[in-house]
């Protein structure tokens, strides 16, 4: 029954499409201000991700260094230990203090051996060979302890920059290493050569110098003339680290 005061369904005005719940208004997506905001947000996000991946991602070990990193990039970090007179352990701190290392609570360099386990890069100084310490029952070479003491005092617990060339057979990153001393940037390997605490690395193949071989050889020659370090003794008593290692690994006569 239809009441006199009621309206017929057919008397209602037609509902527009944009008034229904199923309709999506795309007009605000076309607003230039919104489009620009989305582009800026997307660009910033992609740039930040790339910045972190390329420059701020921490590298734990030499085995984690990617192929495109060698000879193109450098590692900045703190020396946590010196294992021998020509190699040490580096805790990578990408970005340095600018990225918060050393002053932000979550950006600190671990102190204990347990905390540092599997978190440091083993670095081998490129282009130099230091006298051998005693290992596996073998006697130490002359000036090996002096070389070890110098390297320890020169770089231990300091921030250094390592320009990496390759990974050697011992899973070490071979690198030219620089440290700040009295505001001056010093090449660690070069300083050892000048003091007669290392020789230019001699090998039939695989020696790495970057572009510093001539400079290193001049430093070694100067140390010889000045009779620095290992060059202070008689020439007949001198044995290079390379010759020492060859002699120690050679089979004994009669075997």
Description:
The protein is an alpha+beta fold. Helix content is 27%, strand content 19%. The protein has 6 helices and 8 strands. The strands form 2 sheets. The protein has a 5-stranded mixed barrel. It has a two-stranded antiparallel ribbon with strand order 4-8. A hairpin with a 2-residue loop joins β6 and β7. α4 runs parallel beside α5. The longest helix is centred in the first third of the chain and has 25 residues. It is elongated, with a radius of gyration of 32 Å. The chain starts with 31 loop residues before the first helix and ends in a 6-residue tail after the last helix. The model has no long low-confidence stretch (mean pLDDT 87).
Write the layout of secondary structure elements.
Blueprint (H helix, E strand, L loop, with lengths): L31 H25 L17 E11 L2 E6 L20 H4 L4 E5 L2 E2 L14 H12 L3 E9 L5 E9 L2 E4 H7 L4 E2 L12 H13 L15 H9 L6
Parallel strand pairs: 3-6
Antiparallel strand pairs: 1-2, 1-5, 2-3, 4-8, 5-6, 6-7
Helix pairs in contact: 4-5
Average pLDDT, to the nearest integer? Answer: 87
Count of helical regions? 6
Within the largest sheet, what's the order of strands?
1-2-3-6-5
Strand-residue proportion: 15-25%
What pattern of helices and strands is seen along the backbone? Answer: HEEHEEHEEEHEHH
Give the strand tally: 8
Radius of gyration of CA atoms, rounded to a whole number: 32 Å
Low-confidence segments, ≥5 residues, pLDDT <50? none
Q: Report how far apart the termini are.
A: 121 Å
Shape: elongated
Helix content: 25-40%
Classification by helices and strands: alpha+beta
Largest sheet: 5 strands, mixed, barrel
